[in-house]
Automatic annotation (TrEMBL):
Pfam families tied to this protein: Glycos_transf_2 (PF00535)
PANTHER family for the chain: GLYCOSYLTRANSFERASE, UDP-GLCNAC:BETAGAL BETA-1,3-N-ACETYLGLUCOSAMINYLTRANSFERASE-LIKE PROTEIN 1
Regions that span the bilayer: 281-299
This protein's UniProt keywords: Membrane, Transferase, Transmembrane, Transmembrane helix
Species of origin: Flavobacterium lacus
Name by which UniProt lists this protein: Glycosyltransferase involved in cell wall biosynthesis
GO MF terms held by the record: hexosyltransferase activity
Domain of life: Bacteria
Record domain Glycosyltransferase 2-like: where: 6-145
Keyword ATP-binding: no
Length: 309
């Protein structure tokens, strides 16, 4: 019998912590899920560990190995192998709450519609504290924009800042409608939010204001190394900032993205900031601020290298 939801996990040399996620999946109150593991080139015997779990036959596990290319390339491979109605990414260093699958599937059965593209739920830490803040009580759904800020209400007259990471559960057939996350040769990072920009633009997103994921931020995690990511992956960030400038609903967000776009151009040594850009006036306005961000990025990188010596 086909499962309703896929939990997919990109992993790279995380055999030391992947077992915690496995245990949390074993203890789910609803077993209507499969676990899809995408191994992004691990060399720590992750494959042997997963094979042992598959032999235990406690939950359905699908495992795929690929050459290391970065988290976004692991996501792209996962998208190719998603076939269930819903799908959710749980990182290799995170866990699911014991009733996460039950909460998600119950909520979906009560609220699903053809116009729904996904569900936002909450993350919590190991002590049970919500990461950031809960969504406002009057926010039940939205459509249009959900990155950092959500605009909602009858005419999108309400705006709320999103604090802390949230968990996105995708309607798989809609997720697969959009192109894969862009990949640039020599770069191993691109925002995993990429497909969500399009889903949120075109479909209604439901709000499940309860935690389903227990998060752990490891010292080598990508979320803690953004200055390094800016410098190692400038083409990806340049592409992303142009996309966000074109899609963002407010001047404030568009201007912030223009500043970051200038920073990426300077890192690349591209001084014709207007080439390929639609919002040339906005870019011109952002140039001095982009230079300041570039100097700050270089200074932070210098300090990071200094502390590693």
């Amino acid at each position: 019998m086909e499962k309703t939801i896929t939990v997919f996990t990109p992993t790279f040399n995380r055999a030391f912590c992947l077992g915690d996620l496995y245990e949390s999946l074993l203890h789910q109150t609803n077993k209507d899920f499969l676990w899809l593991i995408i191994d992004d080139g691990s060399s720590d015997a992750t494959d042997e560990l997963v094979q042992r779990w598959k032999d235990e036959n406690q939950i359905e596990i699908h495992y795929f190995y690929k050459e290391n290319g970065g988290m976004h390339t692991a996501h792209n491979l996962a998208y190719e192998h998603l076939h269930t109605e819903l799908s959710v990414c749980i990182d290799s260093d995170d866990m699911m709450t014991h009733d996460a699958i039950e909460k998600i599937l119950s909520f979906w059965e009560q609220n699903k519609s053809d116009q729904c593209g996904g569900i936002y739920a909450l993350d919590e830490d190991k002590k049970g504290n919500i990461i950031g803040e809960k969504f406002p009580d009057d926010l039940k759904s939205f459509q249009g924009w959900g990155c950092k800020y959500i605009f909602y209400g009858e005419n999108n007259e309400k705006k709320v800042k999103i604090t802390g990471d949230k968990k996105f559960i995708s309607v798989t057939k809609i997720l697969k409608k959009y192109p894969p996350i862009p990949v640039f040769e020599g770069e191993k990072y691109y925002s995993l939010y990429y497909k969500q920009y399009f889903i949120e633009r075109d479909y209604t997103i439901l709000i499940l204001n309860e935690p389903v994921c227990i998060v752990e931020y490891l010292a080598d995690g990508s979320s803690l190394n953004m200055t390094s990511q800016y410098l190692k992956n400038p083409r990806g960030f340049q592409h992303l900032r142009l996309l966000m400038m074109n899609m963002a609903p407010s001047f404030e967000i568009r201007f912030t993205q223009a500043i970051h776009y200038i920073n990426s151009c300077l890192i690349l040594g591209h001084y014709n900031f207007w080439r390929g850009a639609a919002k040339k006036g906005l870019i011109t306005l952002a140039i001095p601020f982009g230079f300041c961000l570039y100097l700050l990025t270089m200074y932070q990188n210098y300090q990071n290298k200094k502390h590693k010596r």
